[in-house]
Amino acid sequence: MSTSTVSPSPPSGVAAAPAGTPPSLSRGVHDGFLGHADFRWLKLALLLCAASTLAYWRHAPVAGANGGTWLGYTLGGIGTALILALSALGIRRRRYSSRLGTVRGWTSAHVWLGLALVLVGTLHSAFEFGWNIHTLAWLLMLLVVLSGLYGVVAYSRYPALITANRAGKSRDQWLIDLDEADERVLSLASAVDRETHLLVLRAIEATAISNRMRDHLRGRAVQVRAANGGAGTMLERITAQLATGRRTGDDARRVAELIDLLARRHSLLTRLGRDLAFHARMRVWLMLHVPMTLALLAALTGHIVSVFLYW
Ligand code: HEM
Ligand code: HEM
Q1: Does this model's pTM top 0.90?
Q2: Is 1 inside any structural domain?
Q3: Would the CB of 141 count as within 6 Å of ligand 2?
């Protein structure tokens, strides 16, 4: 196999631990992080939603509700505090020695308070939307929350699929198996005849594992260069060629073994491709979540500065 584009341990990949996520994230709603401390953060988030809705409903300013009334400022302040606290998760996750709560508790708080933020931010704006920096901040907030929701679904779905696909081995072990299969296939092919050896060698050299996330997402992590079709077609072609001609005795046995090994190599490649695809789907949302958080912080700063300057 060509190794030029192979990354034995892609940046997003983790060898043994399924999916590279904290184990607490990979469990279900009840024993996972969502239910942390008896749903403490869900209860707090619901309380915040109920209090904000009640206050908004009872609040009847003369000039109509808007972000500039006392309630508007209060909700805006709470919303901003929430956004800053939610953004701090990125820092907390990387401070392994911190004693400030557990990562599991932080993630639970993050998800539930992040969802409550949608209501708090929207009530603060009093549903006044337009083509301005205020609405931009609100839209970015929605994007961050929606991508976060996808993240929660991905974290509950992919770790189990990854574990099942890996069948007790790590990705590195599968890569070692693949190298071994390549070697055995080649030596068997050279024992068959020169033509078969060349054919198999070309197939192995043409096979590469892309390290581009886009390919992983499209299920095209395993690529067979300069060939029509994928690894499957290549396997079929070699098998068809080997099946032609009359073979007897040791020759027939070697060919049967070679066809078997080629099929095993093909299934190894399929497994690796699937592993990379699951990983990519599990991490891709962070590529939106984190940059959109930065954009939100910038737009929010602009929003707050502009209301204080022009109000
Ligand atoms: C300390 C924090 C905040 C302060 C002091 C603040 C202040 C204000 C003020 C004074 C207004 C009324 C402006 C107007 O009616 O033209 C307003 C409106 C608005 N705010 Fe905030 N805000 C804060 C946080 C937030 C947050 C966290 C969001 C959402 C991410 C947000 C989104 C909006 C939106 C969409 C409007 C409506 C804009 C419009 O009337 O066209 N604000 N804010
Ligand atoms: C405006 C609100 C939000 C902000 C500013 C925000 C920001 C962040 C940041 C900065 C990280 C750290 C990423 C990293 O370290 O790589 C993160 C992670 C995460 N966020 Fe959010 N987030 C928000 C809302 C949400 C919501 C509503 C959800 C779920 C419904 C969510 C789910 C997650 C998850 C699951 C993680 C990953 C935790 C992990 O991998 O350990 N976020 N978020």
Answers
A1: no
A2: no
A3: yes
